[in-house]
Amino acid sequence: MNIKFLQLIRYLCFASLLCLASPKMTAQTPTDAIMMEKGQLCVAAIYGHDSWEEYWEGTYKRSNGNIGTFTRQSVSGMFSLGITDRINVLGALPWMKTSASAGYSKGVQGIQDWGVWVKARSIDFKLGPGSLGFYPVLGLTGPASNYLTDYLPFSLGLGAVEASGRGILIYELDMGLYARAHAAYHIRSNTTIERDYYYIPGAGGVYSDKVDMPNVSSFGATLGALLLKNNLKVEATYEGMNTLGGADIRLHDMPFPSNNMDMTRANFNLQYYIPFGNGHILSVIAGGTQVLTGRNVGQSTAFMGGLTYQFGVFGNKNEATN
Amino acid sequence: MKKLYLFGALAVVAMAVFQACEKDLPTNLEFSAYKYANLDENGGTWKPVLLDSASLIGIPAPADASSAAYLAELADLKAASSDLSADQRKAVAYWSGDGLVRWNEVARDLAAKYNLPPPPKPDGTYAAPDPANPGNIPNFPFAHPPYACRMFAYWSTAQFDALIAAWHYKYAYNRPAAYKTDASISTHLPQNDLPGYPSDGAVVAAVSKRILTAMFPLEKDYIAELAEEHLNSLQWAGISTESDIVWGDSLGRGVAGKFLTRAGSDGMKAAQTPKPISDSLRVAAKARFGWQWDNLESPVRPVGIAPFFGRVKPWCIPNVEAVRPPVPPAPGSAEFLKDAEEIKEISKNLTQEQRKIANFWSDGPSTYTPPGHWNRFACDEIVNYKLNPLRAARTLAYMNMAIMDAGISCWDAKYYYHYARPIQAVPGFKTILGTPNFPSYTSGHSTFSAAAATVLGHFFPAEAAKFDNWAKEAAESRIYGGIHYRFDADMGNEQGKACGNYTIEVAKADGGE
């Protein structure tokens, strides 16, 4: 029996949605400070592999012979579009497959959650040897298929519709080093399960097929650099999420969608850009993530890799290559 | 830029509205206290389940309605029921007088809370819950379905006998309800013509407190708090005087004691056998039939759940052999292969509807178990049909006796036939539900559900088809979940019906039809 924080998987996918937007070698995710110029579209396909052997029941860390190694693989399609130079729209749709190396529980596969984000460049000015920018991001995610939420850790997702508000602050030196921080608050709707009674430890029984999902806060801090004449971007991130409520998994109990899932992780990403003469840009990305601390989640080790492709769809199509 | 800020402000408002629109989720059945459909005035003459007579537990004649002592009680009641605080009003509405449905819900929640399989220790062994030291890890009890069905059975049969006794004294002493004697008392619940002494609500609270505390010893304080609030609510509601409550409480405690004496010697203490005995059942099945069930968890659990629950004393069936199903198809036989093929096909092409049915009836760890599920259905009908507490307790008592008999006979079959689960007998088979730690044949869900549906159908004939469909769906759900073959479900259904029919015969003879 056990766990995985599925939503973070989604974030992981986004941490890998990295596109070149300007000669300054920037990227594009809901948690970064990169903007596509007007008319530019970046599409991405990312493969992710995430696995764990140990997980936390509350704060108690354990393994489980009936799970062995738990693995989640995903293939995500994503896009980022410059509506104007100051407003971008991002979208994503991951397909996933879950399985366990031991025990007799059947894995699951299918489409997880759609996600749409709007990112704006609200403040951007020179400060000392670099420039300071602030980017608000609003997001909405929700289940894209009728997957079962009440089957953790195998569930594809948690099934809640989630609205998030995020602020991103970046300070970028002209020489190509930058530091970025973001913080977000995620409001979650009830999720639906396929039984109409369940027991919440410390609270009691609930006679409904709806589950009240606690809200979530998340944060991240990144150090990044542009190398090899700005063709290679390297980033290291420390990030975390904190579920604001919910019960712990009791000793040897089943996990539940509204559990109090917390974690911190370290993440390392590379992106290499290959510009074409016609203004289109290909990039190759790769990254790894390690969960450091957790509560009611698996201590996962994740790898991902993929391709992005950027091109103009309206406006001045040559702007991308400057 | 302005547009941006406007967009942002709108989005923040939308997010707040988005969440504010969600309602609080119900933690119990939502209903208002109702006027009883009838009072069963002759209920004191019904045949109790365990007591030799309704007057076995004595309570004294109450003070006369015109006595000074009673007038003082009435004055106290009048004071207690005027100017209620919001919390007091809430308590009155929640307990709604007799409180039978509420205590059933409390029992369901406790079953769910304690329905947690013992965890493996770091060295790969398992500790068993210890009734003598319930606070040890794992806590006592592990409220698996056999434990839960027995808990519900004792709780409801004790309620039934105690309320028969209460009805006996109500009409033997015939002291009118307080509000009949003093019309100036403001009551906050529907009035009725039942004599007030002893209080049926106090009987229900006392039985619940005593039985549930015995079944869930770590919840002693929690249960005592609830009982106190229930008793107080009877005064706040303006319906029961102090002597009504005190002697109702005394009667309830006395009757519950008789049931706990039965529980102490019904064989449950030996149900969770030591490993050598459990192994001998496996060896016996292997010798007799050529097959055996094995636990496939990691680390392996040394003993299945309650191997000797089949030897626990039943209520209405003559013995387990009377309802024991025939030998199941041998693994590898054509009949077996047909049903094994069916679960493989279902697993491969599981529809949304099948998945939903499997989950709806799963009633696994951290739930109130199938017996709890059927108690919920029974309580829904009790409220729909506005049953008085005596008739409600009768419904619950016979249903839960049938469910426990079904559990006993099902467990007898499980460990007698010791039949392998699909994950053991079908190579490479995986499931969407956890495979329980006991043999396959017959299906517990099917047996419990058919027994419950049979008895409820007898008491609520207009709903019989609905209950029967639910029982069939509960049985089918285990096939969809991949943890039972169709022959487990079908034979479990038959076995449960047989248990239910024995129970109905007893009910027909108790004077309450």
Descriptive account of the structure:
The complex is a heterodimer of chains A (322) and B (513). Chain A is mainly beta. Chain A has a single domain (6-321), classed as Beta Barrel (Porin). Helices cover 3% and strands 55% of the residues of chain A. Chain A is globular, with a radius of gyration of 20 Å. Residues 1-28 and 317-322 of chain A have low confidence and may be disordered. Chain B is an all-alpha fold. Chain B is built from 18 helices and no strands. In chain B, helix 4 (100-113) runs antiparallel to helix 13 (369-384) and helix 12 (352-360) packs across helix 17.
CATH class of the largest domain in chain B: Mainly Alpha
Taken in chain order, the helices and strands of chain A follow as HEEEEEEEEEEEEEEEEEEEE
Q: Give the % helix of chain A.
A: under 10%
Order of strands, widest sheet of chain A: 1-4-5-7-9-10-11-16-17-18-19-20
What characterizes the major β-sheet of chain B?
A: none
Q: Into which percentage range does the β-strand content of chain A fall? A: over 45%
Give the helix tally of chain A.
1
Contiguous low-pLDDT stretches of chain A (5 residues minimum) are 1-28, 317-322
Number of domains of chain A: 1
CATH class group of chain A = Mainly Beta
CATH topology name of chain A, in short, is: Porin
Tell me, rounded to a whole number, the average pLDDT of chain A.
89
